[in-house]
Specification:
By secondary structure, the chain is mainly alpha-helical. The chain is 62% helix and 2% strand. It has 19 helices and 4 strands. A two-stranded antiparallel sheet has the order 1-2. The longest helix has 33 residues.
């Protein structure tokens, strides 16, 4: 690696980690209705939203009421977005008179954006109007991320409260998450991207002249606003088909760094938000330490692998370097690998290089990041509540080892909580393995893959892992836009989203009702290096035992067959 590669890595970690504690405290105060420096500006807007919607801010929801409100809101959003995509031909801001999507593709896309997955079996610049991009997809980018943040806050309250029957008000949490949690940072990032050359216009295209003197129509639109929230909301859906590899979405090294930081900034900050809820920031440091260890482990493996020359192209007459196939020259190998690892560590499906061209071990890292449930940083809210599930599982295992009733922050884990935790362990296998196996048995499944052997298997495995993990990135090369694949992937995305949310809210309600007790001298501490190591091993073992056989058939077999 060169010095600028090291500078990129250092700048990335500094820009993420330094503001995270301050931002985490800001989110805690904002979500609890306390005064912040944005209150004079956004406070009147917030109160206006409540009056307009008829929300009683003093009324709190039980976990069942919270769940029903969340489900109703998401079902309504799905129906509205499905209508926008299907009826696009008849809606305004469609200068190219683009037709609506087919019913299966519209359903797949609607489910994708409502579940914060942003899987795209289409190219946005050739199939979606500015209205669909702006008022359909971009709106859901905000609302799906705000939903995840609301669920996390409900779980934090469930852990922190004692003998409580409520978890807060979903409509209040959703409003605050959008206004305070996402909107200000999105405006800032959008301005930075416009400064770097990302378009923000309602023009559908501009005419340009190539170096050969030929005319060319360049697609345009409200790009910067969608790119900003797609990164900050850990959504990932691109305005253009090639996503953040497109120079209009990601034109420079600076825009690349800004977007990379935007992908994980909020998920890292929310770790500190949890510490403020439980009044113990040591818990935050232990969890963040585990996340960083997993991220560095995967990132170092991917960087080493991707900087190796391809043995299939080895020649004694030519000096071999890191292969650049599928990468943008303006980013290079290190920036492409850092993006691939970051975007799969978070539930963000954006890409600045084609994952189909990655070294098999790099592909293995991206798959593993998603297979553990994207808990390394994860999505906005979703990543931390996924990691907290692993925290509770680790506490349960520790209790079994020492023969004591497992307790976390004074709350005992009993049969009901353990059953809910076990239910969450089945989500990823069902979404990725069961539905992926069903897709592979469909007629014509072989023809949908562009590669034979282990790499073709990896393409299929990656697609359903990405869907179930609510990531949305793809290995590419897989013909996904068929009615059967659209429906199966939509089901995988629904399972991956609500298969976690429903048990998490039930768990939050169960924990909130417990009286709790003070930690004694013989209690197992959950804030030190020992617990962070146990948590790390729990994540690796659960993911490894579940998915190692399939990884052996895909990227591991490909790595061995190429003679690395």
């Amino acid at each position: 690696m060169h010095s600028y590669d090291c500078a990129l890595l250092l700048g990335f970690f500094l820009l993420v980690l330094l503001p995270a504690p301050w931002l985490g405290r800001f989110y805690y105060r904002a979500m609890e209705g306390q005064r912040t420096w944005l209150s004079p500006v956004l406070g009147p807007v917030e109160r206006g939203c409540y009056r307009l919607a008829g929300v009683d801010t003093g009324l709190e929801h039980t976990w069942r009421q919270y769940t029903l409100a969340l489900l109703a809101f998401n079902v309504a959003g799905l129906a509205l977005l499905f209508g926008v995509l299907s009826l696009q031909r008849y809606l305004p801001l469609n200068p190219q008179q683009l037709p609506g999507q087919s019913w299966s593709l519209a359903l797949n896309t609607a489910v994708s954006f409502v579940t914060n997955t942003n899987w795209q079996a289409y190219s946005g610049e050739t199939s979606l109007s500015p209205f669909s991009q702006l008022f359909g997809l971009t709106v859901q980018n905000f609302l799906s991320a705000a939903t995840g943040l609301s669920v996390l806050v409900a779980l934090c309250r469930g852990i922190a409260r004692r003998s409580a029957s409520s978890l807060g008000n979903f409509w209040v949490d959703l409003t605050r998450a959008t206004l305070y949690g996402l909107l200000p940072l999105s405006l800032l990032l959008a301005l930075l991207l416009v400064w770097q050359g990302v378009p923000q216009t309602f023009l559908d295209q501009v005419q340009a002249v190539t170096l050969q003197g030929n005319g060319q129509a360049l697609p345009m639109g409200p790009v910067a606003s969608q790119v900003a929230i797609k990164q900050l909301g850990t959504n990932g859906g691109g305005f253009f088909g090639v996503n953040s590899a497109h120079p209009f979405e990601n034109p420079s090294a600076w825009s690349n760094l800004f977007e990379l930081v935007g992908i994980v900034l909020i998920p890292v900050a929310l770790v500190f938000t949890f510490g403020h809820y439980v009044k113990d920031l040591r818990q935050s440091r232990a969890i963040l330490g585990c996340m960083l260890a997993l991220f560095v482990l995967g990132g170092a493996t991917a960087l080493w692998a991707e900087h190796q020359p391809n043995p299939a192209l080895a020649s004694p007459l030519v000096e071999q370097g890191a292969p650049l196939e599928g990468k943008e020259a303006r980013f290079g190998t290190t920036a492409s690998v850092l993006w691939a690892v970051t975007t799969t560590a978070a539930s963000n499906g954006s890409v600045n290089a084609m994952h189909d061209s990655l070294n098999p071990l790099t592909g293995l890292v991206t798959l593993a990041n998603m297979m553990v449930g994207e808990v390394i940083f994860g999505g906005v809210g979703a990543g931390l509540y996924g990691m907290l599930l692993f925290v509770l599982i680790a506490v349960f295992l520790a209790g079994l080892m020492i023969g004591r009733t497992p307790q976390y922050l004074g709350k005992s884990l009993q049969a009901r909580e353990v059953k809910l935790l076990v239910a969450t362990l089945l989500v990823m296998p069902c979404g990725a393995l069961v539905l992926g196996a069903l897709a592979s048995s469909l007629p014509g499944a072989q023809g949908a893959l562009s590669n034979p052997g282990p790499h073709g298997f990896s393409q299929l495995l990656y697609a359903f892992t990405s869907g179930a993990a609510n990531n949305g990135s793809a290995f590419a090369g897989w013909a996904a836009n068929t009615p059967a694949h659209n429906l199966l992937l939509a089901l995988a995305m629904l399972v991956g989203r609500f298969g976690y949310i429903l048990p998490v809210l039930a768990l939050a309600g169960s924990l909130a009702a417990k009286r709790g007790s003070a930690a004694g001298v013989d209690s197992f501490p959950t804030h030190g290096l020992l617990f962070a190591s146990l948590l790390l091993m729990t994540v690796l073992l659960v993911g490894g035992l579940t998915f190692l056989p399939t990884l052996a058939l895909g990227p591991i077999a490909e790595h061995l067959s190429q003679g690395f």
